């Protein structure tokens, strides 16, 4: 049977939409699935009197709300400096292992912190935007190996990433995690490293076909001279080791890396490339070329202001079109964070949730390569669907994943050991048990006991492929979660 999320049909609608009617439950679910991580029954009630414009403005107004989740505790401790990281290779095998495991535990704490903020935080749109930028400006802890730098990069995504793409790009141009990931400190006068220059032009701004190999080579010269400070590992520029003199990029003269970034921001191709990324993230897998072009012009003319751009997208006819519903496949983070948030499942230790998303193929802080997660239908395979059903069942029953048995490369098992996440200390897993998740959901929201249609509308973008048959409400709800239609938003 073919489901609508497999369809490849195009749709074309206007850029702007105006409606004064109050949101329906399914419209609220659609908005909060795309601009956040699921709609709770409380959200449905809160947004019920609002129009589309009022609801979108409410989400935008929350972007500056305080972060509710306390930072990971390790950030308050004395941190290893650059000399310590360099000296690790001179230690004994046991000492190297202990140092590595400790840092991996800190990275896992960041993952758990971020998932908690996605689920319980005061601004779901902020975390949605940060996750989009995380998949766009990719760095991976597996190579960076400095938790502090990954923490600082996530902070970039969550602050300038919700205000100005131009400021975000400038920040990436001085980001320690990015520099380590793309080997900027190894660049030398006689052999400039081209990794960052290539990804800056191809994946972060212009897209393929809008630059030459010479442009990459010349841009790479502007990156020679950047190092990481021996104390706090922050990027510093040392003119004595730089390539002096003018360079030619895209037919213009530049001297420094910041000149390259400002040049890229002036290019219409950059605005189009980033606008299309936002379309793919918020609307559908089939961008409308004419609408993307119009949006991109507005974006560039505004100086790449993110909030007006997101507002226009979320109020567009394309976003609200019935054809847009169910067109996006939920990522593992969407599936896990959205399920926990939607049903008010109390979190005991979100590091377990990070392990679940890893088992499903989306390890926060560790995209698979410079292109990030491919997303879309790449999330759906015979194997991944079985894993998704298993994860949803564990969440519903409050069970703990078994990292040692479920991750062939053993990394998840390492996470568990180094973080103290042993089976002995995690008898109730990430949640507080089924009685406080699906059963409690009905106890708190009795309307859904009698109105099955409403329940389906507020948790699913499409009608279930197989209507539930079980008699008790929690079991009936679990059937809906395991239905293929729950995989899309």
Write the layout of secondary structure elements.
Blueprint: H1 25-35, H2 41-47, H3 52-61, H4 82-87, H5 93-120, H6 124-136, H7 141-144, H8 147-158, H9 165-172, H10 176-181, H11 195-205, H12 213-221, E1 226-228, E2 235-237, E3 247-249, E4 252-254, H13 257-265, H14 268-282, H15 289-301, H16 306-314, H17 317-320, H18 332-342, H19 350-359, H20 382-397, H21 403-406, H22 411-418, H23 438-444, H24 447-450, H25 452-459, H26 473-481
Antiparallel strand pairs: 1-2, 3-4
Helix pairs in contact: 1-25, 5-8, 5-18, 5-19, 6-8, 11-12, 14-15, 18-19, 18-20, 23-26
Class derived from helix and strand content: mainly alpha
Distance between the termini: 19 Å
**Strand numbers in spatial order across the main sheet:** 1-2
Query: Which regions contain 5 or more consecutive residues with pLDDT less than 50?
Result: 1-14, 404-409, 423-429, 431-435
Summed over residues and divided by their number, the pLDDT gives a mean of: 89
Strand content: under 5%
The biggest sheet amounts to: 2 strands, antiparallel
Q: How much helix is in the residues?
A: 40-55%
Inertia-based shape: globular
Instruction: Report the strand count.
Output: 4
């Amino acid at each position: 049977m073919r489901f609508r999320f497999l369809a490849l049909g195009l749709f074309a609608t206007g850029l702007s939409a105006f409606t004064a009617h109050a949101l329906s439950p399914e419209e609220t679910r659609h908005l909060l699935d795309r601009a956040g991580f699921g709609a709770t029954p409380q959200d449905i009630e809160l947004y019920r009197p609002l129009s589309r414009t009022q609801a979108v403005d409410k989400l935008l107004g929350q972007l500056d709300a305080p972060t509710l989740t306390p930072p990971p505790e390790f950030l308050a401790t004395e941190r290893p400096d650059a000399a310590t990281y360099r000296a690790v290779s001179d230690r004994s095998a046991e000492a190297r292992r202990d140092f590595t495991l400790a840092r991996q535990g800190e990275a896992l704490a960041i993952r758990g912190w971020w998932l908690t903020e996605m689920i319980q935080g005061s601004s779901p749109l902020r975390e949605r935007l940060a996750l989009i930028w995380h998949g766009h400006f990719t760095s991976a802890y597996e190579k960076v190996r400095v938790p502090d730098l990954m923490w600082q990069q996530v902070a970039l995504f969550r602050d300038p990433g919700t205000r100005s793409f131009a400021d975000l790009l400038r920040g990436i141009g001085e980001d320690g995690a990015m520099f380590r990931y793309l080997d900027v400190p190894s660049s030398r006068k006689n052999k400039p490293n081209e990794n960052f220059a290539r990804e800056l032009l191809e994946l972060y701004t212009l897209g393929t076909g809008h630059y030459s190999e010479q442009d990459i080579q010349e841009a790479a010269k502007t990156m020679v001279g950047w190092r990481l400070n021996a104390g706090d590992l922050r990027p510093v520029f040392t003119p004595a080791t730089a390539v002096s003199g003018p360079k030619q990029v895209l037919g213009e003269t530049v001297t420094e890396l910041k000149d390259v970034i400002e040049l890229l921001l002036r290019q219409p191709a950059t605005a189009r490339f980033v606008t299309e990324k936002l379309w793919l993230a918020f609307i559908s897998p089939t961008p409308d070329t004419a609408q993307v072009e119009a949006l991109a012009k507005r974006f560039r003319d505004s100086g790449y202001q993110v909030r007006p751009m997101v507002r226009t997208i979320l109020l567009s006819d394309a976003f609200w079109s019935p054809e847009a519903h169910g067109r996006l496949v939920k990522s593992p983070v969407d599936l896990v964070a959205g399920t926990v948030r939607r049903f008010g499942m109390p979190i005991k230790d979100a590091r377990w949730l990070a392990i679940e998303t890893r088992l499903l193929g989306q390890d926060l802080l560790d995209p698979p390569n410079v292109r990030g997660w491919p997303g879309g239908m790449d999330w759906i395979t015979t194997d991944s669907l079985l894993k998704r059903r298993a994860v949803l069942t564990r969440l519903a029953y409050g069970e703990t994943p078994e990292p040692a048995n479920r991750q062939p490369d053993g990394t998840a098992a390492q996470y568990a050991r180094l973080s103290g996440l042993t089976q002995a200390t995690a008898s109730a897993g990430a949640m507080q048990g089924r009685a406080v998740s699906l059963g409690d959901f009905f106890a708190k929201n009795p309307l859904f006991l009698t109105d099955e249609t409403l329940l389906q509308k507020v948790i699913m973008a499409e009608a279930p492929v197989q209507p539930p048959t079980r008699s008790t409400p929690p079991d009936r709800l679990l059937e809906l979660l395991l239905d293929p239609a729950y995989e899309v938003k």
